[in-house]
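re: that complex we talked abt at group meeting.

here r the seqs, copy pasted straight from the sheet so there may be weird spacing, ignore it
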Amino acid sequence: MLEEFWFALVGVLWVGFFVLEGFDFGVAALLPVVGRNDETDRRAVLGTIGPVWDANEVWLLTAGGAMFAAFPEWYASLFSGMYLALFLVLFSLIIRGVSLEYRGKATTAAGRAWCDRGIVIGGALPALLFGVAFANMVRGLKMTPDHTVTTGFLGLLNPFGLLGGVTTLLLCTLHGAVFLTLKTSGEVRDRARRVTRSLAPPTVAAFAVLAIWTVVLRGGIAVAAVSAVGLVALVFAVLSWFAERDGWAFTGTAGAIALLVTSWFVALYPYVLPALGTPENSLTVSDAASGHYTLTVMTCVAVLFTPVVLGYQAWSYWVFRRRLVGSDEAG
Amino acid sequence: MSHDTIARWQFAITTVYHFLFVPLTIGLSLLVAGMQTAWNRTGSVEWLRLTRFWGKLMLINFAMGVVTGIVQEFQFGMNWSDYSRFVGDVFGAPLAMEALIAFFLESTFLGLWIFGWDRLPKRVHLATIWLASLGTVISAYFILAANSWMQHPVGYRINPRTGHAQLTSIWKVLTNPTQMVTFPHVLMASLLTGGAVVVGLSCWHLRRGHQVELHRRAVHLGLVVCAVASVGVMLSGHFQGQVMTRQQPMKMASAEALWDTEDGAGLSLFAYGDVSHGDNKIDIKIPHLMAFMATNSFSGKVQGVNDLQAAEVARYGPGDYTPVMGVTFWNFRIMMGLGAVYFGLSLLGLARMRGGHLPGGRFLLLAFMWAAALPYAANTAGWIFTEMGRQPWVVFGLLRTSSAVSPGVSTAAVIATLAGFTVIYGALATVALRLFLRHGRHEIPALSPNVTISGEPRVGVALPSLAY
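got the structure back, here u go
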């Protein structure tokens, strides 16, 4: 029971990561498009995520830490198994963090240009790679009986994995565009709206194909139901775009991302890491879990601190709730 | 080089590099919080100018600590998956707590601090920097508790089914005797690092006669912090040595190149010897001092390497249980020596500053400038000593480092990522240091009139002044 609770909690942490970092990745990837070549516009674009991106990234660290504590075998097999992919993720996150923090402190235009490149790469590459990694986790990896992964880096680049990557890249970028629409006004917002319009059709298509393929691959009525609701949320976001209801559109893309990630975890259960080709080598939730005592301790900590964290994180969004403006209105 | 040697080099490079930024993050964020509190209390606008100047430098350093910290959390699983399997049930808990309790706190409130100057009431804004600093301190607590468990495992049992360590008492892990002396030592070392950097850069300005009143104020604050922190470092280090003598006698013996067990052992100042024979050719000692440091008695017995090696073979089976003696011996001396030097320097500076003077003439100011490097060298030496001194164990007495690596990761992959991390870390070190110095050399600006810090939110302003 406690093991299932922690499996669900790890899922929730990854949902939080994808929903929050999703728009950070999207905003970063869209910097040259929505920010054009104008410094004031670019600052407005980056200002939307400036105060919050670092705290959003902590969802990744917490998800990783929770996997380590609650499912050491999962953490160990998955992270060593996706070694080079994870290295690329870390590499791009390092570039992104430094570029975001140093852009405002760069003293030359060339320095800012380098930071802009780092921001775009550091936004787009993780958005793609996390999708590849999660799709492969759902699809399964080749494993020995002691859960050592033998699928190499190139083995991750199969059609299903790549579709997963393209879907998360599109979805995060769309989410970022909708977030920019919500957080800016004037010309910057108009540009974000145009980007949203052109991204919506391919995102809906990729989402739908990935959902159907996941159902075919891992089956289950629950996966189909969650994915269907996710698709509805995405369509709702598009309809809200037409109605210019920015808040509802953002709720829609956030919901779609949350439900996509949820569908992965639903598809995984009762496994945490299915073995490709040798089902008997698969790692189950209970095989991977820590002992009862550790899970109890961690549950107490989570119950005590999660509401506090959610509280002050929500407060920080409230403090920075105002829309930002670009060159046309800032003057 | 074998697979586990390359993996160890990677861990050493990424961790030592990470720890170049961490102590300054902790120390400087506390100092900046102190400066801002001084502004709040006294209303002196000079404190506010110092807060903003040092706050910007703190953020340049902070960013590097954050991005290199992500690697720390993931490389256990990537390079050390058998370690992660063995310790996860125990070791994972403090790491997860660190993320949930500390990382969220520091990142959220740092964001609020950076962007909240004109949006938060003055006192709430002050609270944000203290909460962010508190986050860095809590983070240090949890990660050091995890490391202390590797030095001295407590509160666990070995699960007979899996053969892995299993947590039986989180309280024992969080109040491990090793942790109780390690945490204050690292916290004090961080304050010393923060203080020394403030002193160093401010002395660069003083040497050039820039804004003397302002920089003198910063130097004074820095020197007071350094003097107090270096006493704290030495005291906590003393108790750490005693705990280590009980828990890891081999580490203590190798720190002293003490080959044979001795009553009233002396503290070695310089030794040169033959590791394969297990003796020293040259050994200059202060009589009885090591016995006192290790046992609080000038005639206390300190065990030697040769005897401990024999005892460990009898206990754990055949093998080499001696750390690399040259590494432990010299890093121990670098750490202690440089800490003592900074203690002396800070007292000298404070004495010179009495009566409104500068901390020194041209030569001494130059010395303070370069002395900012001393805590960095001492911090690095301290970690290399404590980690290398534990070898061949990764978890003392339970798991050998050679059995901890990822079995599924190829040596080529480890070499590739080692190269990748080294290249990007090298490049970023250059960028960060240049940026730090460029902003550090700037004149501390007078408060610009368009920055209102009244607590009244300004309307229609797109961007705050400190970033982006």
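couple things i noticed - The beta strands of chain B are 156-158, 165-167, 262-263, 267-274, 279-286, 301-302, 393-395, 399-400. The radius of gyration of chain B is 24 Å.
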